[in-house]
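Protein modeling request. Please complete all fields; requests missing the sequence field cannot be processed.
Requester role: graduate student
Desired output: 3D structure, token encoding
Chains: 1
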Amino acid sequence: MPTYAGATATTQRPGGVYVYPRVGLGLGEPSRIAPESERIEPRFGQALTVGLSELAVGAPFVIGSPVTGEGRDTSGTVFIFRRDDSGWRQSHRLTAPTSHPHVERFGEHLTSDPTTSLIGAPNSGGPPPYGNPGEGAALF
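Delivered output (140 residues):
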């Protein structure tokens, strides 16, 4: 089983998830998983959860909708990658549901089991742009 490590984006470089294959008793040269756009996605790689054929990667400081770019400050995104014979490929991205207008930092925390993923969004529930630090939301 490989080892996965998230490296968050900064203003100078995009983030990524590095996959280190097992080589004997150690680790080999890593491969990098990144969003299709390769633009700097704020905090891409801050959280991740790995399944047999699916990888979810949080980018809790991505701003707005992936289609229009409109939305709240720091609303966040979760990128979903699927593994096939040639490696990991981005399949889609999740944003906070519009039925929850004050979700902030969607994707800062992630966990999953074989049938369910849980996405944490701290600082949710308060007025924009930054929510209430004492409140949060878990979406699944």
